[in-house]
């Protein structure tokens, strides 16, 4: 197999293919600063973690890269990427699929490869499932998760403070907590039915006036069933 071109970003060796670069451009165009910096950090964290874990090193790096970069298109300010009735992870996965179909080399992306990219994006918030999937799905998930956990809790224990600091310097965490909170609360306001069965609803219950999970949780539905 021909080696793909690479470059260095924040000290991390990453792919320098047309599709990866187009994915970065697409994320930059369709995401605000908080989201773009998050997906870029997730890509770089995941690249370093996977490259330094034997179980993940031999993966489809281009697939992993594109999925990581585009995994939060469901947070986009572009209404064309947002549905009225789907979880943001599904919107992100569908937008990623469409992007690859549009921008990828057709004979390099068969149905299986496309499905892996979709799964990597759709399952990125479901770590208890994603870590048991294919290595591309797992690598994407653990890289994204590294942006939400203390350094010492990152997958495999290979992420160092020097690596973390270099990535964060390149893609700052400015107003990350506030920005993510506002995005998730926005989902609770604009399409609440997509938030009742997942963690997004916790933000609505905590911060959005008038939002309630009462009667919407699985435990509520089960207890309301007449046997």
Automatic annotation (TrEMBL):
HD domain: residues covered: 35-129
Cross-referenced Pfam families: HD (PF01966)
Matches recorded under Gene3D superfamilies: Hypothetical protein af1432
SUPFAM superfamilies cross-referenced by the UniProt entry: HD-domain/PDEase-like (SSF109604)
Protein name (Swiss-Prot/TrEMBL): HD domain-containing protein
């Amino acid at each position: 197999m021909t080696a793909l071109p690479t470059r260095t970003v924040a000290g991390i060796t990453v792919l320098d293919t047309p599709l990866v670069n187009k994915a970065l451009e697409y994320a930059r165009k369709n995401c605000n600063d908080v989201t773009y910096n998050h997906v870029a950090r997730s890509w770089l964290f995941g690249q370093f973690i996977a490259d330094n874990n034997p179980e993940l090193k031999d993966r489809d790096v281009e697939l992993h890269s594109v999925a990581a970069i585009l995994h939060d298109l469901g947070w986009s300010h572009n209404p064309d990427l947002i549905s009225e009735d789907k979880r943001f992870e599904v919107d992100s996965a569908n937008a990623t699929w469409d992007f690859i179909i549009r921008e990828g080399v057709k004979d390099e992306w068969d149905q299986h490869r496309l499905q892996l990219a979709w799964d990597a994006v759709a399952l990125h918030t479901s770590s208890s499932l994603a870590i048991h999937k294919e290595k591309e799905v797992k690598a994407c998930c653990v890289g994204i998760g590294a942006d939400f956990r203390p350094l010492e809790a990152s997958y495999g224990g290979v992420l160092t403070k020097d690596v973390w600091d270099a990535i964060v310097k390149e893609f700052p965490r400015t107003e990350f907590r506030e920005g993510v909170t506002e995005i998730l609360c926005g989902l609770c306001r604009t399409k609440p039915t997509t938030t009742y069965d997942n963690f997004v609803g916790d933000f609505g219950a905590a911060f959005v006036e008038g939002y309630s999970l009462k009667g919407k949780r699985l435990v509520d539905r089960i207890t309301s069933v007449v046997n």
